[in-house]
Amino acid sequence: MNLGEILDVHQLSVASGVPADVAAALLEGRPAGRADLQTRFLQRLDLLRRTRLKPNGRRYTQQEIADGAGMSRQQAGALINGDRRPTMEHCDAIQRFFRVHAGFLTADDADALNSALLRTEQRLLQEHAVEGDRLERLLQDHGVRGIAWRAAQLPTDKHRDKVTEWLDMLLESVKPVDPADSPQRTET
Q1: Which of 6, 54, 56, 67 is the most exposed place for a label (fewest CB within 10 A)?
Q2: CA quadruple 42, 109, 19, 146: dihedral positive or negative?
Q3: In angstroms, how far is CA 88 from the centroid of its own chain?
C-alpha cells in the first residue's frame, strides 16, 4: 500500500465518516468547518446508508435499521430524517448495526479522521510486523499507540500517570533479558 492509497480522501471519508472535502482540508492542515453534533450524525448516518450495503448491493431500509438497532421504524425514520436528536443509546445501537467503531456517528471531524488514520497504522503494522519482535507485537496486539493517544486526551496528569504506570509494567514484562543481568548459576 502506497502513501496515495493510505491518504486517499474518499477512502478516509468512508472509514471516518468525515466528508471528503473536510478530510482533505484537515489533511492539508487547513481549518475545516465545525459541524454540530446533529449535522455530523446526519452526515455520517447518510454515509453509512450509502456505503454499507446489504449483500445484494441494496441499501438497508428504515425498518431493517430499526429492527437491527432495536428501535421502532418511527424512531429510526425520525433519526434518519433529522426530525429527532439521537441519544447516545441510539448512536451505539446504529453503530453496532452497521458494524462501525464507537464514536463513528458523533466524533469531532479531526478526531474521527485521526482515529481512521490510527486504525490504518495498526493494520499496516500488523501486516509488516516481524514475527519475533515481542515489543512490536505488544504495540500491535495491545494497541499501545492507540492507548497513548487516548491517554493524552485524559483530563488530568493523575489519570495520565496511571496509564503510564500500566504501560511501564506491561513493557517491563516483555523486555528481553540480558544474559549479563541474569544471576549466575554456580555448580556445587
Answers
A1: 56
A2: negative
A3: 17
Same domain membership, residue 11 and residue 72: yes
Number of domains, the chain:
2
H helices within 52-108, ranges in order? 62-69, 73-80, 88-98
Cell of 107: 466524533
Domain containing residue 144: 129-176
| Contact in structure between 10 and 23 (CB atoms under 8 Å) | no
Residue 31, domain CATH: 1.10.260
Question: pLDDT tens digits, residue range 97-111?
Answer: 999 988 999 999 999
Specify the higher pLDDT residue, 48 or 137: 48
Cβ 95 vs Cβ 52: under 8 Å: no
**183 in a domain, yes or no?**
no
Residues 42, 85: Cα–Cα separation, whole Å: 10
- Cell 501486516 locates to 127
| Per-residue pLDDT, 188 | 47
- Identify whether 110 is part of a domain: no
pLDDT digits (tens, 9 = 90+) for 55-106: 999 999 999 999 999 999 999 999 999 999 999 999 999 999 999 988 999 9
Q: Which residues contact 42 (CB under 8 A, 6 or more apart)?
A: 82
**DSSP annotation of 156:** S
